[in-house]
Design goal:
There is one protein chain. This protein has about 425 residues and is α+β, with helices and mostly antiparallel strands. The chain has one domain: Penicillin V Acylase, Chain A. Helix content is about 25%, strand content about 20%. The protein is built from 10 helices and 18 strands. It has an 8-stranded antiparallel β-sheet, covered by helices on one side. The protein has a 6-stranded antiparallel β-sheet with strand order 14-1-2-16-17-18. A hairpin with a 2-residue loop joins strand 12 and strand 13. GO terms for molecular function: cysteine-type exopeptidase activity; dipeptidase activity.
Length: about 425
Protein backbone atom coordinates (compact mmCIF):
# COMPACT_ATOMS: atom_id res chain seq x y z
CA UNK A 1 0.00 0.00 0.00
CA UNK A 2 1.50 3.34 -1.03
CA UNK A 3 1.61 5.94 1.73
CA UNK A 4 -1.45 8.14 1.49
CA UNK A 5 -1.54 10.71 4.20
CA UNK A 6 -1.14 14.32 5.13
CA UNK A 7 0.97 17.45 4.84
CA UNK A 8 1.80 19.88 7.64
CA UNK A 9 3.34 23.33 7.23
CA UNK A 10 4.72 26.10 9.40
CA UNK A 11 6.07 29.54 8.54
CA UNK A 12 7.87 31.85 10.95
CA UNK A 13 9.35 35.33 10.59
CA UNK A 14 10.92 36.45 8.28
CA UNK A 15 8.87 34.21 5.95
CA UNK A 16 5.58 35.62 7.22
CA UNK A 17 4.06 39.07 7.03
CA UNK A 18 4.23 40.68 10.44
CA UNK A 19 5.50 39.00 13.59
CA UNK A 20 3.38 35.90 13.13
CA UNK A 21 3.71 32.14 13.08
CA UNK A 22 1.41 30.54 10.51
CA UNK A 23 0.66 26.83 10.98
CA UNK A 24 -1.32 24.73 8.53
CA UNK A 25 -2.30 21.10 8.08
CA UNK A 26 -4.44 18.92 5.85
CA UNK A 27 -5.71 15.67 7.29
CA UNK A 28 -5.84 13.12 4.49
CA UNK A 29 -7.92 10.11 5.45
CA UNK A 30 -10.39 7.62 3.87
CA UNK A 31 -12.93 9.53 1.77
CA UNK A 32 -15.93 8.31 3.82
CA UNK A 33 -14.46 9.29 7.19
CA UNK A 34 -16.01 12.17 9.15
CA UNK A 35 -13.78 14.70 10.87
CA UNK A 36 -15.15 16.68 13.80
CA UNK A 37 -13.92 19.82 15.56
CA UNK A 38 -14.19 19.77 19.35
CA UNK A 39 -13.18 21.98 22.26
CA UNK A 40 -12.12 20.58 25.63
CA UNK A 41 -11.65 23.00 28.54
CA UNK A 42 -8.74 22.84 30.93
CA UNK A 43 -9.43 20.30 33.67
CA UNK A 44 -8.10 18.58 36.76
CA UNK A 45 -8.23 14.79 36.75
CA UNK A 46 -8.05 11.66 38.80
CA UNK A 47 -5.51 9.05 37.62
CA UNK A 48 -6.24 7.16 34.40
CA UNK A 49 -6.74 8.41 30.82
CA UNK A 50 -8.49 6.21 28.25
CA UNK A 51 -7.01 6.72 24.80
CA UNK A 52 -8.23 5.05 21.59
CA UNK A 53 -7.08 1.54 22.53
CA UNK A 54 -5.26 1.66 25.87
CA UNK A 55 -5.47 3.40 29.22
CA UNK A 56 -2.48 5.38 30.45
CA UNK A 57 -1.58 7.42 33.50
CA UNK A 58 -3.32 10.78 33.56
CA UNK A 59 -1.68 14.05 34.55
CA UNK A 60 -3.20 16.16 37.31
CA UNK A 61 -4.05 19.08 35.00
CA UNK A 62 -4.66 19.40 31.27
CA UNK A 63 -4.74 22.57 29.17
CA UNK A 64 -7.71 23.74 27.13
CA UNK A 65 -7.53 22.38 23.59
CA UNK A 66 -9.35 22.59 20.27
CA UNK A 67 -9.01 19.53 18.01
CA UNK A 68 -9.83 18.34 14.53
CA UNK A 69 -10.13 14.57 14.66
CA UNK A 70 -11.57 11.55 12.88
CA UNK A 71 -14.86 10.99 14.70
CA UNK A 72 -14.08 7.41 15.80
CA UNK A 73 -10.82 8.34 17.54
CA UNK A 74 -9.96 9.61 21.00
CA UNK A 75 -6.94 11.44 19.65
CA UNK A 76 -6.68 14.04 16.88
CA UNK A 77 -4.98 14.75 13.59
CA UNK A 78 -4.27 18.35 14.54
CA UNK A 79 -5.12 21.03 17.02
CA UNK A 80 -3.99 23.81 19.33
CA UNK A 81 -4.05 24.62 23.02
CA UNK A 82 -4.63 27.68 25.19
CA UNK A 83 -0.89 28.48 25.13
CA UNK A 84 -1.04 28.76 21.33
CA UNK A 85 0.89 25.54 20.79
CA UNK A 86 -0.14 24.00 17.44
CA UNK A 87 0.57 20.37 16.55
CA UNK A 88 -0.08 17.88 13.76
CA UNK A 89 1.22 14.44 12.84
CA UNK A 90 2.14 12.52 9.70
CA UNK A 91 2.40 8.84 8.93
CA UNK A 92 5.96 7.76 8.12
CA UNK A 93 7.29 4.42 6.97
CA UNK A 94 10.88 3.28 7.46
CA UNK A 95 12.98 0.22 8.16
CA UNK A 96 10.75 -0.77 11.06
CA UNK A 97 6.99 -0.65 11.43
CA UNK A 98 4.93 -0.81 14.62
CA UNK A 99 4.62 -4.43 15.71
CA UNK A 100 0.83 -4.46 15.40
CA UNK A 101 -0.04 -4.48 19.07
CA UNK A 102 -2.47 -1.88 20.34
CA UNK A 103 -0.62 1.02 21.91
CA UNK A 104 -0.82 4.79 21.39
CA UNK A 105 -1.81 5.99 17.94
CA UNK A 106 -0.05 9.02 16.52
CA UNK A 107 -3.35 10.87 16.90
CA UNK A 108 -3.49 9.97 20.61
CA UNK A 109 0.00 11.41 20.95
CA UNK A 110 -1.10 14.67 19.32
CA UNK A 111 -3.92 15.16 21.80
CA UNK A 112 -1.86 14.14 24.81
CA UNK A 113 0.95 16.55 23.92
CA UNK A 114 -1.48 19.44 23.45
CA UNK A 115 -3.11 18.66 26.79
CA UNK A 116 0.23 18.58 28.61
CA UNK A 117 2.71 20.96 26.94
CA UNK A 118 2.74 24.76 27.02
CA UNK A 119 5.58 25.13 24.49
CA UNK A 120 6.60 23.35 21.31
CA UNK A 121 9.77 21.98 22.90
CA UNK A 122 7.78 20.62 25.83
CA UNK A 123 5.72 18.71 23.25
CA UNK A 124 8.95 16.91 22.35
CA UNK A 125 9.43 16.00 26.03
CA UNK A 126 5.86 14.72 26.39
CA UNK A 127 5.99 12.70 23.19
CA UNK A 128 9.36 11.18 24.06
CA UNK A 129 8.16 10.13 27.50
CA UNK A 130 4.96 8.58 26.16
CA UNK A 131 6.77 6.69 23.38
CA UNK A 132 9.25 5.27 25.85
CA UNK A 133 6.57 4.17 28.30
CA UNK A 134 3.72 3.02 26.06
CA UNK A 135 5.00 2.76 22.48
CA UNK A 136 2.98 3.40 19.33
CA UNK A 137 0.83 1.02 17.37
CA UNK A 138 -2.65 -0.19 16.49
CA UNK A 139 -4.99 0.01 13.51
CA UNK A 140 -5.12 3.54 12.12
CA UNK A 141 -8.32 3.08 10.13
CA UNK A 142 -11.86 2.35 11.25
CA UNK A 143 -11.86 -1.12 9.76
CA UNK A 144 -10.24 -4.50 10.18
CA UNK A 145 -6.87 -4.03 8.51
CA UNK A 146 -3.16 -3.90 9.22
CA UNK A 147 -2.72 -0.24 8.26
CA UNK A 148 -0.20 0.93 10.85
CA UNK A 149 2.63 3.44 10.81
CA UNK A 150 5.17 5.38 12.79
CA UNK A 151 4.70 9.11 13.17
CA UNK A 152 6.37 12.41 12.57
CA UNK A 153 5.18 15.60 14.26
CA UNK A 154 5.38 19.31 13.54
CA UNK A 155 4.68 21.64 16.45
CA UNK A 156 4.92 25.39 16.93
CA UNK A 157 4.43 28.07 19.57
CA UNK A 158 4.92 31.84 19.72
CA UNK A 159 8.68 31.73 19.10
CA UNK A 160 9.73 28.55 17.31
CA UNK A 161 8.76 25.21 15.81
CA UNK A 162 10.05 21.64 16.13
CA UNK A 163 10.00 18.62 13.87
CA UNK A 164 10.09 15.24 15.62
CA UNK A 165 10.34 11.96 13.70
CA UNK A 166 9.94 8.53 15.24
CA UNK A 167 10.63 4.87 14.64
CA UNK A 168 9.01 2.84 17.41
CA UNK A 169 10.27 4.41 20.63
CA UNK A 170 13.30 5.98 18.93
CA UNK A 171 13.20 9.56 17.73
CA UNK A 172 15.09 12.60 16.49
CA UNK A 173 14.01 16.24 16.75
CA UNK A 174 15.04 19.43 14.97
CA UNK A 175 14.40 23.02 16.04
CA UNK A 176 13.16 25.58 13.50
CA UNK A 177 13.67 29.17 14.60
CA UNK A 178 12.88 31.02 11.38
CA UNK A 179 11.79 30.57 7.78
CA UNK A 180 9.43 27.77 6.81
CA UNK A 181 9.19 24.01 7.01
CA UNK A 182 6.83 21.27 5.85
CA UNK A 183 6.60 17.56 6.52
CA UNK A 184 4.90 14.81 4.59
CA UNK A 185 5.14 11.02 4.66
CA UNK A 186 8.87 10.53 4.72
CA UNK A 187 11.69 11.13 7.15
CA UNK A 188 13.42 14.43 6.42
CA UNK A 189 15.53 15.16 9.50
CA UNK A 190 19.06 14.61 8.20
CA UNK A 191 22.23 15.71 10.03
CA UNK A 192 20.82 18.69 11.96
CA UNK A 193 19.57 16.93 15.08
CA UNK A 194 18.97 19.12 18.12
CA UNK A 195 17.58 16.41 20.38
CA UNK A 196 17.33 12.63 20.13
CA UNK A 197 16.57 9.40 21.96
CA UNK A 198 19.67 8.52 24.03
CA UNK A 199 20.02 5.16 22.26
CA UNK A 200 19.08 6.31 18.77
CA UNK A 201 22.54 5.78 17.29
CA UNK A 202 23.43 2.69 19.31
CA UNK A 203 20.25 1.00 18.13
CA UNK A 204 21.10 1.81 14.52
CA UNK A 205 24.56 0.30 15.01
CA UNK A 206 23.14 -2.87 16.55
CA UNK A 207 20.83 -3.25 13.54
CA UNK A 208 23.79 -2.67 11.15
CA UNK A 209 22.11 0.37 9.64
CA UNK A 210 25.00 2.67 10.57
CA UNK A 211 28.70 1.97 10.96
CA UNK A 212 29.21 4.40 13.84
CA UNK A 213 31.91 6.30 11.96
CA UNK A 214 30.28 8.18 9.10
CA UNK A 215 28.23 11.30 9.74
CA UNK A 216 24.89 10.29 11.24
CA UNK A 217 21.96 11.14 8.97
CA UNK A 218 18.67 10.17 10.60
CA UNK A 219 16.61 10.03 7.41
CA UNK A 220 19.22 8.00 5.56
CA UNK A 221 19.71 5.57 8.44
CA UNK A 222 16.08 4.95 9.42
CA UNK A 223 14.39 5.16 5.99
CA UNK A 224 13.88 2.32 3.55
CA UNK A 225 16.89 1.34 1.47
CA UNK A 226 14.51 1.16 -1.48
CA UNK A 227 12.67 4.48 -1.52
CA UNK A 228 10.10 3.54 -4.16
CA UNK A 229 7.44 3.14 -1.49
CA UNK A 230 7.75 6.78 -0.45
CA UNK A 231 8.22 8.19 -3.93
CA UNK A 232 4.69 9.56 -4.12
CA UNK A 233 4.88 11.30 -0.76
CA UNK A 234 8.30 12.65 -1.65
CA UNK A 235 6.82 14.37 -4.66
CA UNK A 236 4.02 15.88 -2.59
CA UNK A 237 6.54 17.05 0.02
CA UNK A 238 8.63 18.76 -2.65
CA UNK A 239 5.61 20.45 -4.20
CA UNK A 240 4.48 21.68 -0.79
CA UNK A 241 7.92 23.12 -0.13
CA UNK A 242 7.81 24.96 -3.47
CA UNK A 243 4.47 26.51 -2.55
CA UNK A 244 5.94 27.85 0.69
CA UNK A 245 9.05 29.09 -1.08
CA UNK A 246 6.94 30.89 -3.68
CA UNK A 247 5.47 33.16 -0.98
CA UNK A 248 8.59 33.43 1.21
CA UNK A 249 8.51 36.72 3.09
CA UNK A 250 4.79 37.24 2.43
CA UNK A 251 3.12 34.18 3.94
CA UNK A 252 -0.25 34.94 5.52
CA UNK A 253 -3.21 32.90 6.71
CA UNK A 254 -4.69 33.25 3.24
CA UNK A 255 -1.45 31.97 1.71
CA UNK A 256 -1.61 28.89 3.92
CA UNK A 257 -5.25 28.28 3.06
CA UNK A 258 -4.40 28.53 -0.64
CA UNK A 259 -1.60 25.98 -0.17
CA UNK A 260 -3.94 23.57 1.60
CA UNK A 261 -6.45 23.99 -1.23
CA UNK A 262 -3.89 23.27 -3.96
CA UNK A 263 -4.82 20.13 -5.91
CA UNK A 264 -2.15 20.30 -8.62
CA UNK A 265 0.55 19.69 -6.00
CA UNK A 266 -1.34 16.81 -4.39
CA UNK A 267 -1.47 18.68 -1.08
CA UNK A 268 -5.26 18.78 -1.37
CA UNK A 269 -5.74 15.10 -2.00
CA UNK A 270 -8.56 13.50 -3.99
CA UNK A 271 -9.58 9.87 -4.35
CA UNK A 272 -10.06 7.02 -1.90
CA UNK A 273 -7.76 8.94 0.44
CA UNK A 274 -8.71 12.60 0.44
CA UNK A 275 -8.39 15.74 2.53
CA UNK A 276 -11.14 15.29 5.12
CA UNK A 277 -10.27 18.23 7.38
CA UNK A 278 -7.98 21.27 7.38
CA UNK A 279 -6.55 23.70 9.91
CA UNK A 280 -4.73 27.04 9.71
CA UNK A 281 -3.49 28.89 12.80
CA UNK A 282 -2.19 32.44 13.17
CA UNK A 283 -0.16 32.99 16.33
CA UNK A 284 1.41 36.33 17.15
CA UNK A 285 4.88 36.58 18.61
CA UNK A 286 3.46 39.16 21.03
CA UNK A 287 2.08 37.16 24.01
CA UNK A 288 -0.44 39.91 24.76
CA UNK A 289 -2.34 39.17 21.55
CA UNK A 290 -4.59 36.18 20.89
CA UNK A 291 -4.08 33.45 18.32
CA UNK A 292 -6.74 32.56 15.77
CA UNK A 293 -7.25 28.93 14.75
CA UNK A 294 -9.27 28.20 11.62
CA UNK A 295 -10.89 24.80 10.98
CA UNK A 296 -13.04 23.40 8.17
CA UNK A 297 -14.62 20.30 9.83
CA UNK A 298 -15.56 19.19 6.30
CA UNK A 299 -13.72 17.54 3.39
CA UNK A 300 -11.91 19.22 0.46
CA UNK A 301 -10.76 22.67 1.61
CA UNK A 302 -11.32 23.99 -1.92
CA UNK A 303 -15.04 23.67 -1.16
CA UNK A 304 -14.92 24.56 2.52
CA UNK A 305 -15.12 27.57 4.77
CA UNK A 306 -12.29 28.02 7.28
CA UNK A 307 -14.03 29.05 10.50
CA UNK A 308 -12.18 30.91 13.30
CA UNK A 309 -11.76 29.78 16.89
CA UNK A 310 -10.15 31.90 19.64
CA UNK A 311 -9.35 30.68 23.15
CA UNK A 312 -11.13 32.64 25.87
CA UNK A 313 -10.39 32.25 29.58
CA UNK A 314 -12.88 30.03 31.44
CA UNK A 315 -14.51 29.05 28.16
CA UNK A 316 -17.15 26.33 28.48
CA UNK A 317 -18.72 26.45 25.02
CA UNK A 318 -19.58 23.19 23.24
CA UNK A 319 -19.09 22.95 19.49
CA UNK A 320 -22.29 20.96 18.99
CA UNK A 321 -22.68 21.37 15.23
CA UNK A 322 -19.25 19.82 14.56
CA UNK A 323 -19.55 17.05 17.17
CA UNK A 324 -20.42 13.61 15.82
CA UNK A 325 -22.96 11.25 17.40
CA UNK A 326 -21.59 9.14 20.24
CA UNK A 327 -22.33 5.47 20.82
CA UNK A 328 -20.80 4.91 24.26
CA UNK A 329 -19.62 1.40 25.11
CA UNK A 330 -21.51 0.06 22.06
CA UNK A 331 -19.20 1.93 19.71
CA UNK A 332 -17.53 -0.65 17.41
CA UNK A 333 -14.12 0.86 18.14
CA UNK A 334 -14.53 0.04 21.85
CA UNK A 335 -15.82 -3.52 21.52
CA UNK A 336 -13.61 -6.52 20.81
CA UNK A 337 -13.28 -7.77 18.18
CA UNK A 338 -13.20 -4.20 16.93
CA UNK A 339 -14.79 -2.68 13.84
CA UNK A 340 -17.57 -5.22 13.34
CA UNK A 341 -19.77 -2.42 12.00
CA UNK A 342 -19.45 1.19 10.91
CA UNK A 343 -21.98 3.61 12.44
CA UNK A 344 -23.09 6.91 10.95
CA UNK A 345 -20.75 9.54 12.41
CA UNK A 346 -21.89 12.55 10.37
CA UNK A 347 -22.19 15.72 12.44
CA UNK A 348 -24.68 18.47 11.55
CA UNK A 349 -22.29 20.59 9.49
CA UNK A 350 -20.95 17.56 7.62
CA UNK A 351 -24.46 16.50 6.62
CA UNK A 352 -25.32 20.00 5.38
CA UNK A 353 -22.01 20.38 3.56
CA UNK A 354 -22.36 16.99 1.92
CA UNK A 355 -25.48 18.00 0.00
CA UNK A 356 -24.04 21.36 -1.06
CA UNK A 357 -21.38 19.78 -3.24
CA UNK A 358 -19.55 22.89 -4.43
CA UNK A 359 -20.65 26.40 -3.49
CA UNK A 360 -17.55 28.39 -4.37
CA UNK A 361 -19.18 31.58 -3.08
CA UNK A 362 -18.74 30.27 0.46
CA UNK A 363 -15.24 31.77 0.34
CA UNK A 364 -16.89 35.22 0.54
CA UNK A 365 -18.18 34.25 3.96
CA UNK A 366 -14.70 33.10 4.94
CA UNK A 367 -13.12 36.37 3.75
CA UNK A 368 -15.52 38.42 5.86
CA UNK A 369 -14.58 36.42 8.94
CA UNK A 370 -10.86 36.74 8.20
CA UNK A 371 -11.13 40.53 8.00
CA UNK A 372 -12.75 40.49 11.42
CA UNK A 373 -9.96 38.26 12.79
CA UNK A 374 -7.28 40.59 11.42
CA UNK A 375 -8.72 43.33 13.59
CA UNK A 376 -8.36 41.32 16.79
CA UNK A 377 -4.94 39.95 15.80
CA UNK A 378 -3.73 43.52 15.45
CA UNK A 379 -5.58 45.17 18.33
CA UNK A 380 -6.39 42.40 20.79
CA UNK A 381 -9.82 41.97 22.39
CA UNK A 382 -11.38 44.43 24.79
CA UNK A 383 -14.20 42.09 25.83
CA UNK A 384 -13.12 38.42 25.44
CA UNK A 385 -16.61 37.15 26.22
CA UNK A 386 -17.70 38.40 22.79
CA UNK A 387 -15.62 35.57 21.31
CA UNK A 388 -17.36 32.74 23.14
CA UNK A 389 -19.73 32.04 20.28
CA UNK A 390 -17.23 32.75 17.50
CA UNK A 391 -16.69 29.29 16.02
CA UNK A 392 -20.25 28.01 16.62
CA UNK A 393 -21.73 31.13 14.99
CA UNK A 394 -19.47 30.69 11.95
CA UNK A 395 -20.64 27.07 11.68
CA UNK A 396 -24.29 28.14 11.91
CA UNK A 397 -23.74 30.78 9.22
CA UNK A 398 -22.29 28.13 6.91
CA UNK A 399 -25.16 25.74 7.63
CA UNK A 400 -27.63 28.56 6.95
CA UNK A 401 -25.92 29.11 3.63
CA UNK A 402 -26.34 25.48 2.66
CA UNK A 403 -29.97 25.49 3.75
CA UNK A 404 -31.19 28.71 2.18
CA UNK A 405 -28.69 29.55 -0.54
CA UNK A 406 -26.05 32.20 -0.85
CA UNK A 407 -28.47 34.92 -2.02
CA UNK A 408 -30.34 34.61 1.28
CA UNK A 409 -27.10 35.13 3.19
CA UNK A 410 -26.36 38.31 1.25
CA UNK A 411 -29.81 39.62 2.11
CA UNK A 412 -29.07 39.08 5.83
CA UNK A 413 -25.54 40.51 6.32
CA UNK A 414 -25.95 40.51 10.09
CA UNK A 415 -25.49 36.74 9.97
CA UNK A 416 -21.93 37.25 8.81
CA UNK A 417 -20.60 38.91 11.88
CA UNK A 418 -20.27 38.25 15.57
CA UNK A 419 -19.86 41.62 17.24
CA UNK A 420 -16.32 41.48 18.59
CA UNK A 421 -15.19 44.46 20.62
CA UNK A 422 -11.49 44.74 19.90
CA UNK A 423 -8.99 46.84 21.76
CA UNK A 424 -7.62 49.85 19.90
CA UNK A 425 -3.92 50.44 19.60
CA UNK A 426 -2.80 54.07 19.63
CA UNK A 427 0.36 53.43 17.65
CA UNK A 428 0.81 51.05 14.70
Amino acid sequence: MHPCSCDTFVALPPSTEGQRIIFGKNSDRPCDEVQEVLYFPAADYEPGAKCTYIQIEQVAHTYAIVLSRPAWLWGAEMGANEHQVCLGNEAVWGRESPDGKEALLGMDLVRLALERADTAEKCVDVLAELLEKYGQGGACLEEQCDFTYNNSFLMSDRKEAWVMETSGKYWAAERIEGGYRNISNEYNITTKIDREHPDLRKYAQRKNWWNGKSQFNFAAVYSYKNTSRIEASGSRYCEGKKLLQKSHGHITAQTMMDILRDKDSGVNMEGMFMTTGSMVSVVLVDPALPGVHYFTATPDPERCVFKPFVFVENMRVQLKETASPTYGPEDPVKKKPRFQSKPDRKHSLFAKHEVAVAIIETHKLECERMKQMEEILYCGVEQPETLLDLFPSAVRDEMELYSDGFEHMLSKPSLYRVEVKSARRVSP
